[in-house]
Amino acid sequence: MAQQPPATPQPEPATAPSGPASVPDDRIIQQRPMGKPLPPVIPLIDPSQVAPPSPLLPRETVPIPDRWRLTDQLKLVNQRWFDPYNPNELKGDRPIHGEDWFFNLSVISDTVFEPRRLPTPIGAQSTQRPQSNDQFGYGKQSTFVENLIVSLSYLKGDTTFKPPEYEFRLVPVINYNYTTVKEVRVVNIDPRRGTTRRDGFVAIQEAFVDYEYRIVSERYDFDDMRVGIQPFISDFRGFLFQDQPIGVRFFGTRDNNQWQYNIGWFRRLEKDTNSGLNDITRTPRHDDVFVGNLYRQDFMVPGFTMQGIVVYNRNHETAQQFLDDNGFQVRPAIMGDARPRSYDVVYLGTNGDGHFGRWNTTASLYWAIGHDDHNQISQRSANINAFFAAAEVSRDFDWLRVRGSLLYASGDKDPYDGKENGFDAILENPQFAGADTSFWIRQAVPLIGGGGVALSGRNAVLPALRSSKDQGQSNFTNPGLLLVGIGVDADLAPRWRAIANVNQLWFNNTSSLSALRNQGDIDRGLGTDVSVAVQYRPLFIQNIVFNASAAVLIPGKGFKQLYAAGGSNTPYSILANLVLTY
Questions:
Q1: DSSP for residue 277
Q2: Which positions ≥6 away from 27 have C-beta within 8 Å?
Q3: What residue segments make up the domains of the chain, in order of their start?
Q4: Which of 2.40.160.100, 3.30.70.920, 1.10.8.420, 3.30.300.30 is the CATH number of 100-581?
Q5: Nearest residue to 307 (alpha-carbon basis) of 364, 355, 356, 256
């Protein structure tokens, strides 16, 4: 019987595959959008190809330098002690001995020349100009200041990956200052000293030991302790307390640096009057600051940091009289009955800094509560209850940044009611609303005819009516402030930046001014602060920076009432500043 030819296989109908039934049961192979599934590939493991080392096998080792000095043998760098840009042992780039002991030297020359015009009184005992019987004199002044800052740091630890285990730091500052004015009793209480003053001072701004006593995570979260004269700033913009006091501080991080904390006690040091630097030759002040704060990074959104803070300021400086280096009494302030006073104040605050998308944001809020044992105007004890709020929002448009600023500090409503409602800081140094160039923030304006106090202090935004920002006591019987401002920062070129600010200023309540001046109702209008500045960096970096600025305060009605004829000339300031950094 003849065999039949094999049947020709028929093509399967063009239907979609039925899914898992089309693959083996032991696994499901994912298909790519295009092409066939790739079969799994298991690498071949053959232990026989790599023989394990024998414990008896002789070995030869060749020592090589550590990873910093290896580059020397390879001729990869050319180290020079005066070159801060390439590896340099003086800049902490390589250990000076051992494997992880480093030394870092920084030198900064900060030179300032500043002509200005301020309301200036005629000397009480005598005057520079005969027949001058007015209350106000010539207000033109000029100041030259040179600060040479030397920072010496000796530390242990590979700080590329984690904080140093030990750090010893010393920062001396050599200061020279020269001031010339047009009236006597401005630079010195003795009119025989004339209208010029030359002074110099050597200060210790930092001298501390830092010890990292615990690493708490594999990402180098840590607990640290610092003892000695050390810098401290309570918030992002220096609204409440920024100083170099002596004290003890515990600080550290948690959760991959997302949480940061500070707990510290500080005692304020006396300041040299004409330089504002620490004077360690004098007994520290009876002015203690206790601080506890907590930071949270990426709060609500990535890029925004939130802080909660509690500060207790205990000031018990009850000496009958403390004179500054120029002979003026600064404690107790010459206002009211000029009797000694002490106070205890607690500041409760929250601060934020960062950005929400393209909007750069900083904000601060403080509530001050406490007790003053002697109000110098009402001549009795008083309760302190004051508020402060500030916010600045900016946005970048390519090379242009536009800023808006708002600040509120409560003012005292009635100096005689046993309450003090004017907000004052411990030692402020605000970086806000164009502070580096602003006339109002940068200059100290005296309250002529209102006792031995100033309307505002140098590098201060609050009209606190203090005898001295650096050496005086806080004063919560003050008019407060409202500030609304706009500003522009323009990066014109890599070397050039231009800055402009306009701030409108009002007092919140002028009752305290009326009481001190024995004057009727004083208008709240303080004035309009207008400033422009330019910054030049010839090397594109911060090692050589030249700043120049000009500012005027266009007097408001309240300012004119306070200074009468002396306020007819527009106050101004001009600044030239050169900063050289090694």
A1: -
A2: 40
A3: 67-99, 100-581
A4: 2.40.160.100
A5: 364
- Identify the three-state secondary structure at position 388: strand
pTM, to two decimals: 0.86
Single-letter code of the amino acid located at 352? G
pLDDT, tens only, 355-384: 999 999 999 999 999 999 999 999 999 999
User: How far from the centroid of its chain's Cα atoms is residue 216's Cα?
Assistant: 28
Which residue's structure tokens are 């309570």? 234
Rounded CA separation 407/430 (Å)? 11
Cα–Cα distances in Å, from 310 out to 66, 235, 253?
46, 11, 18
Q: What is the largest CA-CA distance in the chain?
A: 152
Task: State the Cα–Cα distance between residues 312 and 101, nearest whole angstrom.
Answer: 38
Q: What is the DSSP letter of 34?
A: S
Q: Which residues contact 276 (CB under 8 A, 6 or more apart)?
A: 458, 470
Q: What is the pLDDT of residues 133-163, one digit of tens each?
A: 557 888 999 999 999 999 999 999 877 778 8
Residue bearing tokens 């300032």: 112
Contacts of 100 (CB under 8 A, 6+ apart): 156, 157, 158
Element at 568 (helix H, strand E): none
Integer Cα distance of 456 and 435 in angstroms: 14
d(CA 222, CA 84): 30
Cis peptide before 119 (omega within 30 of 0): no
